[in-house]
TrEMBL record:
It is a single-pass membrane protein. F-type ATPases have 2 components, F(1) - the catalytic core - and F(0) - the membrane proton channel. F(1) has five subunits: alpha(3), beta(3), gamma(1), delta(1), epsilon(1). F(0) has four main subunits: a(1), b(2) and c(10-14). The alpha and beta chains form an alternating ring which encloses part of the gamma chain. F(1) is attached to F(0) by a central stalk formed by the gamma and epsilon chains, while a peripheral stalk is formed by the delta and b chains. Signal peptide: none annotated. One of its GO terms (molecular function) is proton-transporting ATP synthase activity, rotational mechanism. This is ATP synthase subunit b.
Length: 166
């Protein structure tokens, strides 16, 4: 260290100081300004990027709010459509039941009418058969009774007696 102090030269110090000041001046004129401009430009770019990011964030929040609103509207519309569909389904089922019931009653009435007409036809046929059978029996009985003269006279008198009573 003593060597440094003993070797100190004022001329060398002057020239080193002059070179250092010249170097500072040159840096200030040619390098400092472009460096500061680049730093300022970068700072402005970062500021713009932050503003863009903030705007994008706000826009995303607005889009999310819109999406939520649209989703809620879609859910409400879906619920409304499902409710309408259920009501239409219930109405169709009720109409089909009513129509089926009406047709069932109509078929029952037709069956009753058919049964009644067949019953009447069967009764008429039965009456016809009974009357035919009665006539056949009466014919056989009359033939048997009318085979002799005395029986004929008795029968005629009996019938005359019955005719007066009625």
């Amino acid at each position: 260290m003593e060597k440094l102090i003993n070797d100190f030269s004022f001329g060398l110090f002057f020239w080193q100081t002059l070179i250092f000041v010249g170097l500072i001046f040159l840096l200030k004129k040619f390098a400092w300004k472009p460096i500061l401009d680049a730093v300022n430009e970068r700072e402005e770019g970062i500021r713009n990027a932050l503003l863009s990011a903030e705007n994008a964030k706000k826009e995303m929040q607005n889009l999310q709010a819109d999406n939520q609103r649209i989703l809620q509207e879609a859910r409400l519309e879906r619920d409304s459509l499902l409710k309408d569909a259920r009501e239409i389904k219930d109405k169709m089922i009720a109409d089909a039941k009513n129509e089926a019931q009406a047709q069932g009653l109509k078929m029952i009435e037709q069956a009753k009418a058919s049964i009644e007409s067949e019953k009447n036809a069967a009764m008429a046929e039965l009456k016809l058969q009974v009357s035919s059978l009665s006539l056949a029996i009466a014919e056989k009985v009359l033939k048997e009774e009318l085979s002799n003269k005395e029986a004929q006279t008795k029968l005629v008198e009996k019938m005359l007696g019955d005719a007066k009573l009625n």
